Amino acid sequence: MAESSVVLADNVLRTCRICFDTNNPKDFISPCLCDGGSAYVHRKCLDEWRAVNKKGRAFKYCEVCQFEYVIEPILDDPVIDKRRLLIFRLLVTRDVTLILLLFQAIIVGLTFLLQWADKKNHVIKDIYPTSMSSFGIYYLSSLIIFFAILGLFGLIGACCGWITTDEPCYCGCYQCYFFGAGCQNCNGNNDCNGNGSGGGSVILIIIVILAVIGLAIGIILGGILLSKIMKRHTNKLWLRQETKKYVVKDFQGKRHELKIISTRQSSTGLSIRNPIANNNTKITPSAPVEKAETHF
After folding, report:
1. b/e string for 232-268 if b means 16 or more Cβ within 10 A?
2. Ranked by mean pLDDT, which of 7-11, 26-30, 218-222 comes out on top?
3. Which residues cross the membrane (predicted)?
4. What is the pLDDT of residues 34-82, one digit of tens each?
5. 3-state secondary structure the chain
6. Looking at the whole model, is its pTM more than 0.85?
7. Which of 12, 34, 73, 253 could form a disulfide bond with 38, CB atoms 3.0-4.6 angstroms apart?
8. Are 111 and 142 in contact (CB under 8 A)?
9. Does 268 have pLDDT greater than 80?
């Protein structure tokens, strides 16, 4: 009875250093040299942190004491590996689809906005051939405007350095002047021949130019974005599945073993993993990974 009360008291004092919760005492492990309040962590919390940590180092090392986790013996299962790769592909497809749907929603929303704004004068509708449908006219116009806005922001980003660096930078303000090119024979009263129709042509040309630039920038940025999404999901999914494959060993009540392993590493330079794994044990990733971050 006395022994059980001691165990219960010990469980109550244990707190997960990640979620700061005392629940699920059976899930607590002590995987590293940390002591005191940082000695215990839920296995589920640790595995999630190993998977989502941006630096990637937390998959193998404790970020507090810098101890390299000891990995339990590895069991390969090709069926589970294929299932995890399928999940990875579904995650990438989901993100790409959501981005495309977001762009499509913006364009469709702009389509109805232009249709409402052009309801009386039909300025936009008169530019296109009469054979085109009303929705097609405004959708195409919205697409051009969308790429024009994208091109404008792309030019601003290129000038201010937003594309080449993630750090915020100062972009100086410059005065801009609009010259009424195409508006000929203006008199002193600013009365233009042709009822000022040249100004609309200039604006249309500017929009088309920005749309072309936006299309090019959009394709480039889309490729970069898709590459980053694939990289992020590849690393996250791989690490998330590897936490189930490469299980961290629990050293509760075996602190002396941790000290022996730590001493052996500092004296011989061997990995802190299970010494058996320091032999010619080759770990084959079950999904694409970055060797620099996740290679064992």
Report:
1. ebbbbbbbbbbbebbbbbebeeeeeebeebbeebeee
2. 26-30
3. 96-116, 137-164, 203-226
4. 887 778 888 888 888 888 876 667 788 887 887 888 877 766 777 877 8
5. CHHHHHHHHHHHHCCCCCCCCCCCHHHEECCCCCCHHHCCEEHHHHHHHHHHCCCCHHHCECCCCCCECCECCCCCCHHHHHHHHHHHHHHHHHHHHHHHHHHHHHHHHHHHHHHHHCCCCCCCHHHCCCCCCHHHHHHHHHHHHHHHHHHHHHHHHHHHCCCCCCCCCCCCCCCCCCCCCCCCCCCCCCCCHHHHHHHHHHHHHHHHHHHHHHHHHHHHHHHHHHHHHHHHHHHHHHHHHHHHHCCECCCCCCHHHHHHHHHHHHHHCCCCCCHHHHCCCCCCCCCCCCHHHHCC
6. no
7. 34
8. yes
9. no
Tokens, residue 109: 């929303």
- The pLDDT mean for the chain works out to 68
Residue type at 89 in one-letter notation: R
* Cα–Cα distance, 102 to 110 (Å, whole number): 12
* CA separation, residue 112 to residues 108, 120, 284 (Å): 7, 14, 53
Nearest-angstrom CA–CA distance, 199 and 189: 17
Give the model confidence (pLDDT) of 199-237 as tens digits: 556 777 777 777 777 677 766 776 676 677 667 767 776
